[in-house]
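Please, structure for the following, as tokens.
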Amino acid sequence: MRYPQTAISEVAKFVNGFPFKPSDWCSTGYKIIRIQNLSDHSKPFNRTQNEVPARYLVKRGDILVSWSATIDVFEWDDEDAYLNQHIFKVDYNPHKVDKQYFKLSLKNTVRELGKFAHGSTMKHVVKGDFDNHQIPLPPLDDQVRIATLLSKVENLISRRRKQLKQLDELLKSVFLEMFGDPVRNEKGWEKKTLLEYLKDQPNNGLYKPQSAYGSGTKIIRIDSFYDGYVQKIEKLKQVQISDSEYQRFCIKSGDILINRVNSIEYLGKIGVVPQINEHIVYESNIMRFRLDNDHISPVYLMFLWRHPYIKLQILSRAKKAVNQASINQKDVLSFVVTIPPIDLQNKFVQIVAVAEGITRHFQQSLTELENLYNALSQKAFNGELDLSRVPLERKEELIQEQVMLPVSTGEENTKTINLPDPDDASDLAKSEVRKELIEKWLDAYLVLLGSGSEFVLEDFVDAAQQKLSSLLEDDESSRLGLNGYDQIKDWVFKAIEQGKISLTRNIVSEPNEEVVYGNQIILINVNQE
């Protein structure tokens, strides 16, 4: 059954933000919501003490739509604030449309309108585009059911994205733990220019007119990487080239690619070439060089490059022009890098390899969830889903953030986890006291397991949470929270580095006495006592 369509203006009103000027800003007063604050509240807010009409006031739970540059839908979850221009506040009619259903419909609308956004340099959508856009309007009960179903998938997608971000942040922390801050260089590593650690000289990429594109050899362009590995090799564009051009501009696994021309924000971003088994070249806005791997690892350099230590060197050498900047080969060769012992670099590479395996698992899961959401939303808005088995009442589900490390193999752990009591539980609400106690519990868990036993993170997290709940009456302060999870993750990676915990994979089968391993990573306690 296809649902009737209605114009968004029939169920909602869009209010554009107030045109604040720099003279309106100050350090105190109401926050001013800019586009950058919508997706990241850690971005600095401008504030104002001026009197602003009440229609521009945003309260927690209000629906906001950024209509310029970044076109997206948000639900405000911070303190009262004023709305800056380039953002709509959306007032909807609750008698006609369910809030969550309407928010999901707006996200679908943004995807559709984004394909036809106005402007050549900064894309935007105008109020009339939203007002005139038609959305399906089922009965309110069906709206609630659709929102319940799609929100569950959305929550899973959000969870996967957070997990990927946390894993990336964790690796940055491990890098600093192992090598220190390259600016302070408190570990006293040798510092030399990059020139001294190259296998061959940098080489700028291949230029071809647009008419040469369409078939032939795959080519890496500046949108193929962003401060990490070159990605989506299978989706690279193709270009017609000669044999001599391939010999000059080909890439190999482990090559370093640098974006030499771009806006100042993206200038100098790095791309490490992963394992490849096909012919690929790189375009003219990119510079390629190869390292002396006996002294410096491409993975180590990739993480060093992402640190402000290198970013500042890039900015200091950038040649700025209209809407873009550039660096040349001489600039790159002059960059100063810290060089820890190659054995230590290789240990870090091993840790990164384990994390990358987990990342691939989560990225595949994220892709599958996004595909599922797109298929479900299309069917839902077209009235093609059987909603009879979806509960009418929406229940908010508390999804606990999972620790970003290998999961249990499913085998029952028969040992009771008896974590020791603290000497004094009165100060457990303090973060430094709790941190010390959790480390004590982790060490105790290793001893309890014994050498050769599987270290099951879920078991420890559950035991620690139960123990905290028994020690603290306040429900809020008794939760491990994200800080607790992050501390546990950091401890485990440090234990791997120190050799207290080893990594293996699950055994799928043992045909003819030959062990076949699966893709699941397992932690094994090798601590002797």
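Residues 139-186+343-391 form a domain with the Helix Hairpins fold (CATH 1.10.287). The mean pLDDT is 85.
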